[in-house]
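Hi Q.,

Before the meeting this afternoon, I wanted you to have the heme C prediction in hand. No need to reply - just skim if you have a minute. The sequence and ligand are here:
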Amino acid sequence: MTRCAAGLLAAIFALAGCQGSEMEIGSPVTGEEDYIALCSSCHGASGIGDGPAAAGLSPRPADITKLAAGNSGEFPLIAVMARIDGYTRAPGVMPEFGQLFGEELVPLETAPDVFTPTPPRLIALAEYVGSLQR
Ligand code: HEC
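Predicted structure with the ligand bound:
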């Protein structure tokens, strides 16, 4: 009986260990990987809004390659992060991703001399969207 209980405990610990490694908490994910996994289904790999899930959507996913062009040539990094995070909530189709980026925060200068604690993964993702600008 005790041996059985010990075996059961060992199995539970093994399972718990297994789950922990599967989740890979804190494993670095690049902005590009996040973009492909979370955004490209709607916005398309290039960002023009032609992902496979875009066809049935109304409104259609925005062309996010022209955000800099629409902002006097300057990529609106903070606005894009706020949008991804769900901080600026436009009623509609696009999901919010704020819960995904974990607890780790780094200070980001969001206005002159204003530093906002921000998840690095969110910054990397928004910077990747910046790299898609045309
Ligand atoms: C389910 C489809 C869908 C997914 C997934 C999605 N979006 Fe969107 N997104 C939309 C739609 C639709 C709009 C435009 C309509 C609206 O504002 O709701 C939009 C708008 C935006 C805008 C605002 C563009 C502008 O002109 O201001 C940005 C930036 C954006 N998405 C980035 C992203 C990023 C980055 C991801 C991945 C983290 C993502 N989206 C995932 C559907 C999606």
